[in-house]
Specification:
The chain has two domains: about 15-220, Histidine kinase-like ATPase, C-terminal domain (Heat Shock Protein 90), CATH 3.30.565.10; about 225-365, Ribosomal Protein S5, domain 2 (2-Layer Sandwich), CATH 3.30.230.10. It contains ten helices and 15 strands. α2 packs parallel to α5, α5 (about 170-190) packs antiparallel against α6 and α9 packs parallel to α10 (about 350-365). With about 375 residues, the protein is an alpha+beta fold. Adenosine-5'-diphosphate binds near residues 66, 102 and 104. Belongs to the DNA mismatch repair MutL/HexB family.
Length: about 375
């Protein structure tokens, strides 16, 4: 027994595992804001306030008027892989919420100074402040004044990951700009939700960054965010892509779903707004390009490239403003590719891109090539 050597492979201690994994869910300021805003939208909020302190370095706070958290859920709300949204893998294709992994809040507990304030309509103006330990276990609940809804506070993000904290501080401005364009996308697409974003620099005053109203159109949201001048430059995007059963999409989704009629092609529509190829002051606008799949903001680098390419063949001097929502069958893409769900795997992307380019070229060919005076 004494001659037995110490084993070199050991299980990583639980707390360290949690910290390692959390760092992959919450990678930057963008993921903090994205997870919190999506939770508010999932809670049915019609009003969302995002408050930054020091551009998010000191604090990010997201307040909503959604349904709140019920006392029975206080214990589990920030535990890893605890979610009210998904019970099994099979639910994934029919899911209509943003979240489903139950990882965001538990990760934030591991990476920031974190607490929640929440109240439901039946609680009146009496809410609870919830504090958690680093693993997401409920530490204490205290009575606090609160309006109906939930406020999640994330202070000093990455305070315990010195390398990442330093990196964030160094790139703070750029990170903040990225966060704002992410918020633009959520605010533009969420026509039933009032968004309000503010920032307060140390020793400075609280500054309103942008806001939208509820019960609007995407057009009105664009005006609120980018100004009325942008709208004069835009054409409506409304493309129906022919995805014949033979080119993959129809057959594949029919195969996945045995009850579906075999010759039915789900087709794809692209709705939104895009710069007229003839209009503009020559400004480049790659930061004003937003992509969605069934209204979920996401990164679609190949779709973006295809649209920009077609646009460039009509106007070589500027980049377009793009707001493009791909409406498609939930069986024809996969959002479960990366923890942040920003990367979406589209089925039969090659056929989709070809069809998109053809339709967009046709649209620009028919576009009125005079500068519009007014589109309102
Ligand atoms: P997920 O969104 O994948 O379920 P999260 O860790 O983001 O995982 O959230 C865990 C749970 O906490 C959610 O399923 C939801 O029930 C609850 N929750 C989080 N944020 C809010 C909120 N703003 N309002 C109401 N409930 C919330
Ligand atoms: Mg979530």
């Amino acid at each position: 027994e004494a001659s037995k050597q110490m084993a070199t492979i050991r299980a990583i201690e639980g707390r360290s595992v949690h910290q390692i994994q959390s760092g992959q869910v919450i990678v930057d300021l963008n993921s903090v804001v994205k997870e919190l805003v999506e939770n508010s939208l999932d809670a049915g909020a019609t009003s969302i306030d995002v408050r930054f302190k020091n551009q998010g370095l000191d604090s990010v706070e997201v307040q909503d008027n959604g349904k709140g958290i019920s006392p029975e859920d206080y214990e589990t709300v920030a535990l890893k892989h605890h979610t009210s949204k998904l019970a099994s893998y099979d639910d994934l294709t029919t899911l209509d919420t943003f979240g489903f992994r139950g990882e965001a809040l538990s990760s934030l507990c591991a990476l920031s100074k974190f607490h929640i304030l929440t109240a439901r309509s039946e609680d009146g103006a009496v809410g609870k402040r919830l504090d958690f330990d680093i693993s997401g276990k409920l530490k204490s609940t205290t009575v606090a004044a609160a309006q109906k809804g939930t406020t999640v506070s994330v202070d000093e993000i990455f305070y315990n990951l010195p390398v990442r904290r330093k990196e964030l501080e160094k790139n703070s401005k750029r990170e903040y700009v990225k966060v704002l364009s992410l918020l633009h996308a959520y605010a533009c697409i969420s026509v039933g939700v009032r968004f309000s974003v503010s920032n307060q620099m140390p020793k400075g005053k609280k500054i309103a960054v942008f806001s939208t109203k509820s019960n609007t159109t995407t057009k009105e949201n664009i005006v609120n965010i980018y100004g009325a001048k942008t709208l004069l430059a835009l054409s409506r995007l409304d493309l129906s892509l022919d995805m014949a059963p033979g080119d993959g999409l129809g057959t594949q989704s029919a195969r996945n779903c045995s009850t579906q009629v075999t010759d039915r092609s789900p087709g794809i529509r692209i709705e939104g707004h895009i710069s007229r190829p003839v209009f503009g002051d020559g400004r480049q606008a790659p930061d004003r390009q937003m992509f969605f799949v069934n209204s979920r903001p996401c990164l679609l680098p190949q779709v973006s490239k295809a649209i920009n390419e077609v646009y460039k063949s009509f106007n070589t001097s500027q980049s377009p403003f793009i707001f493009a929502n791909l409406i498609m069958d939930t069986n024809s893409y996969d959002v479960n590719v990366s923890p942040d769900k920003r990367t979406i795997m589209l089925h039969d992307q090659t056929a989709l891109l070809e069809s998109l380019k053809t339709a967009l070229t046709k649209m620009f060919d028919q576009t009125d090539h005079t500068v519009p005076q007014s589109t309102l």
